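## retry 2 of 3
previous attempt timed out at serialization; input unchanged, resubmitting
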Amino acid sequence: MRTGGRDVRGLVEMALVMADVADEISMEGFFSDFSVRTKEDGSPVTTVDRKVEQALRDIVASNDRFAGFLGEELPPVLGLGRWVVDPIDGTRQFIEGSQRFATLIAFEVDDQPIVGVVSAPALGLRWWAGTGLGARLSLHGSVSAARVSVVSDPDRARILVPDGHPMSSQGRRMISETTDARGRMTAVSASWEAVRVASGEADVAVAEGAWWDVAPLPVIVREAGGAVSRYRTADMRVGIAMSNRVLARRRREATIAT
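## retry succeeded, writing output
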């Protein structure tokens, strides 16, 4: 399978190797001492964040040397296609000793992700997908196909929304159009948790942030059979709204009605 001139299967294999390396470094750091500093935007960064990103940059430089690289902690690199990495999504949780952190890896062509990996090693969870190859979920090493739910009743919808940053008006509208703002809402503190839509653990989710915070989500959810909408918030964050296709149909109908 080739997309944008790239071998998607080969890119998935490389992304999984990158995730293995990231998992090893982040778990070693999780149980060790590390230093923390505050960035200009007020968010924390640890020495482990930077170590993970540097290791993944080194893998790309050695194995895909013409590709670009966009990461949260170090300057971008231009190239043909681009790897997008959040070394630790959920840094605050990582610092506090919570297991709810993950590494996010995507490869994009012309601003469209064609490969995505979300790996949460402390929880034993990993989701991944490549365009045309389907989506997979690994739970403590047991791999299965990832599929979205078939919930159609808005009252039963399980909705994940971002915590710690006010959700944009676009995000609120997406949820309202999909579920009439009904259903059971759960606030999650890190963007990566929205990927649970892909494995049917949630029915609707909105994630907002920098591109590296959300880049793997669209391809994973789509390949799991879900629907994805991408938007830009007023403060220039990237928003990703995800749901199963039954509930997404409600949003399209609501949009047409207005």
